[in-house]
Amino acid sequence: MNTTVFSVPNYNLDVTFSCGQAFRWHCRDGGWEGVIDNHWVRLESRKDGISAATDRPQTNWRWLEDYLQLHADLDAIVATFPQDEPMRASVQACNGMRLLRQNPWETLVCFICSATKQIVQIRQIIHNLCQQFGEPVAGSGGGACRAFPTFSRLALAGEEELRACKMGFRAPHVLAAARKLDSGAMDLGRIASLPLDEARDCLTQLNGVGPKIADCVLLFAYGFPKAFPVDVWIRRALEHLYFRGRSVRPERLNRFIETHFGPWSGYAQQYLFHAVRTGALPLPKPKHA
DNA sequence: AACCAGGGAGCGT
DNA sequence: ACGCTCCATGGT
């Protein structure tokens, strides 16, 4: 076991790992355990920082610093949010929430599988997928620790094998994406250097990937600050909070998002999403738990 | 037991 | 540009 401590202010692991951007972390003994690429790691909150434990010595920790985005200036980001009541309430409810920088392929598959699924179910599907196709990585506690399966591995899978992971009608979408990447017909590495609109157009060429899922990948994996996923929760929230509950056409909604939420609108979106989903920001219609 | 879930695509009007 | 339907599966 090898441990280090990062000094970083106001980093809330609980909110960060529970807000619906990542699906493989699990809480255990007061810490968070997960797999980043081929690294198993256990994280714990410390006074003004985070401790990280791995199962083997680390020559450097950049893979973790980058994933956690430890260098990000959260105060500066939050300061750009709109100074309206919903956003103030969201910031208060989600104090210390950070956006991660996740693997693009993993993020793409996770959100393809997210379509009309509850977050608990998405977690189960991804778990099944990793158990079935992921390479084992050394871990702690005897728990099953596997890397997220590569697209090359999934390209070799059959649709029925993927359906066995309970991803239903999303199975052919995952399979086609894996094969397209494995063949070289699409390169996820290239997307990082594209303007937002072109990056979105590229991802939505994949079957089963529309604007919402594309923006999740662009926000959670590539860090496009103005990628703004609009799901049912966000749509309801925006219409209720800013349009008196009236339904708004997509183009109009996008124009509002562009002008209202500032240069870190995607970040603001995640605060709003989590605040609404946890009930900290109440809406009239929903009936969530 | 219905209803709905961090959607998307293909249809018809 | 809309509205509808289907797509699997399971939580509430």
Care to describe what's here?
This protein is of the alpha+beta class and 289 residues long. The chain is built from 15 helices and 5 strands. Strands 1-5-4-3-2 form a 5-stranded antiparallel beta sheet. β3 and β4 form a beta hairpin. α4 crosses α15. The longest helix is centred in the middle third of the chain and has 15 residues. The chain starts with a strand and ends in an 11-residue tail after the last helix. 34% of the residues are buried. The structure holds a DNA duplex (13 and 12 nucleotides).
Could you give a short description of this structure?
With 289 residues, the chain is of the alpha+beta class.
What's the layout of helices and strands?
Elements: E1 2-7, H1 13-18, E2 26-28, E3 31-36, E4 39-46, E5 49-54, H2 62-68, H3 74-78, H4 85-93, H5 104-112, H6 119-133, H7 151-155, H8 159-163, H9 171-182, H10 188-191, H11 196-203, H12 211-220, H13 232-242, H14 250-260, H15 265-278
Antiparallel strand pairs: 1-5, 2-3, 3-4, 4-5
The structure holds a DNA duplex (13 and 12 nucleotides).
Keyphrases for this structure?
single chain; 289 residues; alpha+beta; 15 helices; 5 strands; 10% strand; globular; DNA-binding
Instruction: Output the strand order for the largest sheet.
Output: 1-5-4-3-2
* Estimated share of beta-strand residues: 5-15%
Percentage of residues in helical conformation: 40-55%
Q: What distance separates the N and C termini? A: 39 Å
Radius of gyration: 19 Å
Query: Please, what is the average pLDDT?
Result: 95
Number of helices: 15
- Compressed to H and E, one letter per element, the order equals EHEEEEHHHHHHHHHHHHHH
User: Structural class of the secondary structure composition?
Assistant: alpha+beta
Low-confidence stretches: none
**Largest sheet descriptor:** 5 strands, antiparallel
